[in-house]
Design brief:
binds (2Z)-2-iminopentanedioic acid, Rossmann fold, binds NADPH dihydro-nicotinamide-adenine-dinucleotide phosphate, 445 residues, 50% helix, five-stranded mixed β-sheet, alpha/beta, 2 domains, 12 strands
Length: 445
């Protein structure tokens, strides 16, 4: 059995039931097989055994009172996965499906993603099985305060710096930051995605969506093409999806779909900036359902379905993991789609990814394509340390350069390892080698 297969077996045996974690590790290890053959020193030092084991996992009770005065109990987590190249960095997810296996998959992806950004950030992920849907502002605040009352002792500006993810936006970051400051009596950059008036960075909220589009531009440039007039399907309608649409519109593409967990809308005329303004209000202020868009603009609403049957040139899955399976991948290919840029983390199933790779379309895996969010978090950390803030133009320029560098690094690694244009292979290898070398340098820890 090869070294990478041995490790995959070990991971499955040791972590039963963590299917998303198995899936992420499987994909990563498949890419790393040729690296292990070239670098026997990694096996000798048991780098992979260490790489797949989080440095630390914290699981805690989160008790809070709802508006009726009833006690509610949730489970909180922080997975501090790898700090070889910098402090743990990665988002918090509040969603009823959150469990350890999902956070470990997100954590290991984050390690490689953060390495690709070129910034000094290790990887971590956290969250809770708390469902923000239907909760009042007061309930969300009480939950966040209780969550931070435990989390505060594990994080710090040089230790672990959480941020947002699904269900955690600027409002939650505010409540979490306020509670940390109150407990520690310290105003430091312990979270990113903060408000602009209290240490946040311009462009952070736009960064993941914009970055995913910049990555698509770079992939297209290898074929001397641009996004102008491309028909695009986007899934999700949260932070990442919204700013993906905004940037695609700016570049002259036409976006025809958005979705949420209830279904998707198809607008053949395109989701213009005026219609997008409605989405911002619907999703960020009123917390409404996507069907309202169809009712207002005469678009079609497909309940309980995903947008992959719509004919397009490019797809931007930007909702959640495993939202695009092999059948969906085949549908997209049959309809002529030749670019996929993953705004979400692992939105495509393993067999779906294989379809895209076999078809040799431009496929940007999440750890590369959506790295603009955490990269800009890294820029927020830098500004916090210096106690100053950069302009939008400065940050956007840096973001574009980081996305180009990630693209070029992954592309070069794909060439070096004999599968030109396979960004899955290239990003896994480039992200991994930097972390593995740092681990070797730092001895057996
Ligand atoms: P939001 O909470 O802002 O939006 C999430 C969107 O995805 C909503 O439209 C939501 O629909 C939909 N969604 C979530 N879970 C499911 C599900 N189980 N089934 C169907 N739809 C679902 O989150 P973000 O936009 O921040 O995150 C989206 C993706 O991008 C995630 O995979 C996240 O990990 C990834 N990501 C986010 C980054 C960031 O900076 N925010 C950075 C890099 C990656 P509904 O409202 O109905 O639940
Ligand atoms: O998946 C991700 O990269 C994020 N949710 C953003 C993490 C961060 O620290 O900004």
């Amino acid at each position: 059995m090869s070294y990478t297969n041995e490790i995959l077996k070990l991971v499955k045996d040791k972590n039963p039931g963590e299917s998303e974690f198995h899936q992420a590790v499987d994909e990563i290890l498949t890419s790393l097989t040729p690296v292990m053959e070239r670098h026997p020193e990694y096996q000798k030092a048991k780098i992979l055994e260490r790489f797949v084991e989080p440095e630390r996992v914290i699981i805690f009770r989160v008790p809070w009172l709802d508006d009726k005065g009833m006690p509610q109990i949730n489970r909180g987590f922080r997975v501090e996965f790898n700090s070889a190249i910098g402090p743990y960095k990665g988002g918090l997810r509040f969603h009823p499906t959150v469990n350890l296996g999902i956070l470990k998959f997100l954590g290991i992806e984050q390690v490689l993603k953060n390495s690709l950004t070129t910034l000094a950030m290790g990887g971590g992920k956290g969250g809770a099985d708390f469902d923000p849907k239907g909760k009042s502002d007061n309930e969300i605040m009480h939950f966040c305060q209780s969550f931070m009352t435990e989390l505060y002792r594990h994080i710090g500006p040089n230790t672990d710096i959480p941020a947002g993810d699904i269900g955690v936006g600027s409002k939650e970051i505010g409540y979490l930051f306020g509670q940390y400051k109150r407990i520690k009596n310290e105003f430091t950059g312990i979270l990113t995605g903060k408000g602009l008036g209290w240490g946040g960075s311009l462009i952070r909220k736009e960064a993941t969506g914009y970055g995913s589009v910049y990555f698509a531009q770079e992939m297209l440039a290898t074929r001397n093409e641009t996004l102008k007039d491309k028909v695009c399907v986007v899934s999700g309608s949260g932070n990442v999806a919204q700013y993906t649409v905004e940037k695609l519109n700016e570049l002259g593409a036409k976006v025809v779909t958005l979705s949420d967990s209830s279904g998707f809308i198809y607008d053949a005329d395109g989701i213009s900036n005026e219609k997008l303004a409605f989405i911002f209000e619907l999703k960020n202020v009123r917390k409404g359902r996507i069907k309202e868009y169809a009712d207002k603009f005469g678009a079609v609403f497909y309940p309980s379905r995903k947008p992959w049957s719509i004919k397009c040139d490019a797809a931007f899955p930007s909702a959640t993991q495993n939202e695009l399976n092999e059948n969906d991948a085949q549908l997209l290919l049959d309809n002529g789609c030749y670019l996929v840029s993953e705004g979400a983390n692992m939105p495509t199933s393993k067999k779906g990814v294989d379809k895209f790779l076999d078809a040799k379309i431009l496929f940007g895996p999440g750890k590369a394509a959506n790295a603009g969010g955490v990269a800009t978090s890294g820029l927020e950390m830098g500004q916090n340390s210096m106690r100053l803030s950069w302009s939008s133009e400065e940050i956007d320029t840096r973001l574009k350069k980081i996305m180009k560098d990630i693209h070029d690094t992954a592309y070069q690694a794909s060439i070096e390892y004999g599968d030109k244009g396979n960004y899955v292979l290239g990003s896994n290898i480039a992200g991994f080698v930097k972390v593995a070398d740092a681990m070797l340098d730092q001895g057996l820890v």
